Amino acid sequence: MDQRIVQFIAALRAGGVRISLAESEDAFHAIEHLGIHNQDAFRLSLRTTLVKDSKDLPRFDQLFPLFFQSGDIPAMLTPGQDLSPEEAQLLAQALRQFSGQLRKMLEKLAKGEPLTAQEMNQLDQLVSSNETTDLRYQNWLTRQMEQALHFKEVRRAMQELMDLLSQMGMNRKSLDKLMKGMQANQEALHEQLRQHAGQRIAENLSRQTPQDRMDGLYNRPFRTLSGDDLQQLHHEVQRLAAILRTRLALRMKHARSGQLDAKATLRTNLKNGGVPIEIRHRNHALKPRIVVLCDISTSMRACSELMLGMLFAIQDQISKTFAFAFIDDLKYISPYFVGRQPSEAVGAVLQEMPSGYYNTDLGSSLITFSHNYLDTLDRKSTFIIVGDARNNYNDPNLEIFRSIARRSRSTIWLNPEAVPLWGTGDSDMLKYAPLCQRTFQVSNLAQLAEAIDHLLIAP
């Protein structure tokens, strides 16, 4: 228990609560006198000794149950075991019509089995929950886990299973009981994931020091960034942009003097009888021309905001940038950056185009681009998409994307999602990727800066 209390105090400090060593000692003295068996007394002893400012009470109340209260997950039902032997045989036969993860989840829901510790650890690795330190993202992290488990697809598969069992002759009463039981079990799994997400974030907080916070921001996934984190990264973007500007300028200088142009050298030295006295070099170091489409929906906001900030901070090394933002439709946003700092311009764009969940439609935005802005592209242009390719099952309009890609010098896609998630659920990434010259996973600022460094190298 002492170790758990130490972790709790560390998490409070990481969450911005000022706690001195003397106050930590007072907390242990209070617990020695009051004990831990009375939950209310235990909670009040910690709150009284550790929290001295009323504004920190919400943080305390948020973290305490994650460290000291094991939430009760709703009991799992066993609808499959309530069936008669004949009905159980029908269920087993129907389940064999499904494959892979869908079949595994359907069987788990029918048997009433919660997720195992091994399965939870695998989810942690898949969604990088070990890096999340902001409790405001508990529900978001839960949704990411559900997405990895194909919750939406499983709901549809449950209905397909019921239809199949009905065709096979199972009676309506058994079908209704089975369906309600499986739905209740999926809700129980949701609660298990939500509690696990909160506990994981709390444990991550307890391991974080102030120095770790700064050092780790570069490698923190965009989806885990708080508003304060994003503000700090805006300052880092300016520093990174200065480094990129210098690096790009040196590349162009070296390219201009580094590659012999044999034809130009021969033509120039005709006056010298063909003796190559004057050497000419090819100039392949043209400043890139950029056309960028940024998804600024809630899940993409941080990545797109920092991408645009960095891109417009290095405009002296780019010939022209045409920037567009989209959620369910497209908007030309380059004028917002005229006379403004990049962070101010991005803020103005986001204010006019408020983000939201579950309404992204890249396919519709591609139609708008094709009809109204196709002339911004030519064979000197690098076409960049910043997005997770999640179209909410809308038409991805691949043929339009293909024609845009053909019109461009190169097509680059920056996606903040982990590669194993590409193509899962409503993600169309695996459909778009073959039409791109390069794809990058850009889950954090370090990866984003590296990607920009690579994509601005003229081929």
Strand content: 5-15%
CATH superfamily of the largest domain: von Willebrand factor, type A domain
Number of helices: 19
The chain-level mean pLDDT equals 82
Give the biggest beta sheet.
6 strands, mixed
Low-confidence stretches: none
Second CATH tier, the architecture of the largest domain = 3-Layer(aba) Sandwich
How many discrete structural domains?
3
Helix content: 55-70%
> What radius of gyration results from the CA coordinates?
28 Å
Strands in their spatial order, largest beta sheet: 3-2-1-4-5-6
Determine the N-to-C terminus distance.
59 Å
Element pattern in H and E: HHHHHHHHHHHHHEHEEHHEHEHEH
Shape: flat
**What is CATH's topology name of the largest domain?**
Rossmann fold
Secondary structure class reads: alpha/beta
Number of strands: 6
Q: What's the CATH C level of the largest domain? A: Alpha Beta
What does this entry look like structurally?
A six-stranded mixed β-sheet has the order 3-2-1-4-5-6, with helices on both faces. It folds into three domains: 2-68; 79-208, no CATH class; 227-455, von Willebrand factor, type A domain (Rossmann fold, 3-Layer(aba) Sandwich). The protein has helices at 2-14, 21-34, 39-50, 57-68, 85-95, 100-111, 117-127, 138-148, 151-167, 172-206, 210-217, 227-258, 262-268, 301-313, 342-352, 362-372, 398-407, 429-432, 445-455; strands at residues 289-295, 320-326, 330-332, 381-386, 410-415, 438-441. A hairpin with a 3-residue loop joins strand 2 (320-326) and strand 3 (330-332). The termini are far apart. Helix 7 packs across helix 8 (138-148), helix 14 runs antiparallel to helix 15 (342-352) and helix 14 (301-313) packs across helix 19 (445-455). It is built from 19 helices and six strands. By secondary structure, it is α/β, with parallel strands linked by helices. The mean pLDDT is 82. Helices cover 56% and strands 7% of the residues.
